[in-house]
Amino acid sequence: MALGLEYRGTRYCGWQTQLAGCAVQDQLDRALEKFLGEKVATTCAGRTDAGVHAMAQVVHLDSEIERDDVSWVRGTNSNLPGDIRVVWAKPVASNFHARFSAIARSYRYLLLNDAVESATFNGLVGWFHGALDIDKMREAAHLLVGEHDFSSFRSVQCQAKSPVKLMHETSVASRATSVIAGETKGLMVFAFHANAFLHHMVRNMVGELVYVGAGRRSLAEFRRVLAARDRSHAAPTFAPDGLYLCRVDYPPEFDLPPARVRHPFDI
Question: Could you tell me if residue 260 is inside a domain?
């Protein structure tokens, strides 16, 4: 069985189960046990970190118990906290694997660029107080497209076998309250679509792009950071608050429901 999930990661210690029981997976596994009357093991498409959100996480599990798709959704949700929801359920072939069958993933990072951090959306968006040049950030983001060794944006805790990934597409958009001489104030949306991502890769790329937008890094320096393949050359890891797993792509043979973007920021 495959499940589609969305969750607000603010109060969780990430996706992966922990002894303290503080993870999204802990909540889901307990809810499924109550719904099915048996313990099941879940596997996700991408292990999100503490404070990171998902609008289109995909999970698979094995169970001999039969329920209709609507019951899987409503029954599991009845045992989940309000900040985690199953949005679809679908039986899948035995060769389906939420992680290894995926062929691409999409992340978006929401950044509030304003003088004062938001209280209303605290935990849902990142924040930077200084002026940012969105055109320069777009130019820098475009340099990430293609196949690269992304070691400069790789966490030292990353366990991926290879740092080489294929970036299909990047973009930097603005839901601006004002734009003056290229300086944007308001909400910025960074989007990344790749075959796979390294640990902290998106947050590290956003940190480096913010350096470019703030004038702390030229485009030539950005190129050198990417080419250096060395984490110590890049900007610090940006906050997890604004990061969202937005889509996981699978071969059409699995016929999974399309990802639904349901977010108040209209991203």
Answer: no
| Same domain, yes or no: 235 and 109 | yes
Which CATH number characterizes residue 93's domain? 3.30.70.580
Assess if residue 202 is contained within a domain: yes
Do 67 and 113 fall into the same domain? no
Domain hosting residue 19, numbered range:
2-101
Is 167 part of any domain?
A: yes
Per-residue pLDDT of the chain (267 residues; tens, 9 = 90+): 999 999 999 999 999 999 999 999 999 999 999 999 999 999 999 999 999 999 999 999 999 888 999 999 999 999 999 999 999 999 999 999 999 999 999 999 999 999 999 898 899 999 999 999 999 999 999 999 999 999 999 998 888 899 999 999 999 998 755 455 555 568 999 999 999 999 999 999 999 999 999 999 999 999 999 999 999 999 999 999 999 999 999 999 999 998 776 555 554
Residues belonging to the active site: 49
Can you give the three-state secondary structure of the chain, one letter per residue?
CEEEEEECCCCCCCCCCCCCCCCHHHHHHHHHHHHHCCCCCEEECCCCCCCCEEEEEEEEECCCCCCCHHHHHHHHHCCCCCCEEEEEEECCCCCCCCCCCCCEEEEEEEEEECCCCCCCCCCCCEEECCCEEHHHHHHHHHCCCEEEECHHHCCCCCCCCCCEEEEEEEEEEEEEEEEECCEEEEEEEEEEEECCCCCCHHHHHHHHHHHHHCCCCCHHHHHHHHHHCCHHHCCCCCCCCCEEEEEEECCHHHCCCCCCCCCCCCC
Residues 119 and 31 in one domain: no
95 and 172: one domain?
no
82 in the same domain as 51: yes
